[in-house]
Amino acid sequence: MRRILVENARRKQRIKHGGNQIRQDIKPELIKDPPQDHDILALDAALTKFAAQHPIQSRWVELRFFAGLTGDEAADTLGISPSTADRHWVFARAWLRREIEPSDRNL
């Protein structure tokens, strides 16, 4: 699922597919907080970097975000306890947020 979303986001950004224009497939007010293509690409880059350092936590994030599993379902899939899964989730969210969001540390 991750590869499908990333490739779709990349395809939409190509000039051949209207990447230099604003897409308006349906009315935005009908969608509750639609994911932005650049957000998915940033998440993919950060998740790739995260996976190199923390493979189990990365797999857990993929199961939660891309596969849509609940915390308990993802924990069962990976064979870890729910409390360990919660710690992985807290750690991964903080790590990814720090990696994706622009830094204001130099101000």
Number of helices: 5
Mean of the pLDDT scores? 80
* Structural domains: how many: 1
Task: Specify the biggest β-sheet.
Answer: none
- What separation lies between the terminal Cα atoms? 38 Å
Shape: elongated
Query: Secondary-structure element sequence?
Result: HHHHH
Fraction of residues in β-strands? under 5%
CATH level-1 class:
Mainly Alpha
Low-pLDDT runs of 5+ residues are none
Oligomer: single chain
The CATH topology annotation reads as Arc Repressor Mutant, subunit A
Per CATH, which architecture?
Answer: Orthogonal Bundle
Write down the Rg: 16 Å
Q: Residue share in helices?
A: 55-70%
Question: Concise description?
Answer:
This protein is an all-alpha fold. It is 63% helix and 0% strand.
Description of the molecule:
The structure is a single chain. The chain has helices spanning 2-13, 37-53, 55-65, 71-78, 82-100. It is mostly helical and 107 residues long. It has 5 helices and no strands. The model has no long low-confidence stretch (mean pLDDT 80). 63% of the residues lie in helices and 0% in strands. It has one domain (2-100): Orthogonal Bundle (Arc Repressor Mutant, subunit A).
Provide keyphrases for this structure.
107 residues; mainly alpha; Arc Repressor Mutant, subunit A; 5 helices; 63% helix; elongated
Chart the SSEs and their pairings.
Blueprint: H1 2-13, H2 37-53, H3 55-65, H4 71-78, H5 82-100
Helix pairs in contact: 1-2, 2-3, 2-5, 3-4, 3-5, 4-5
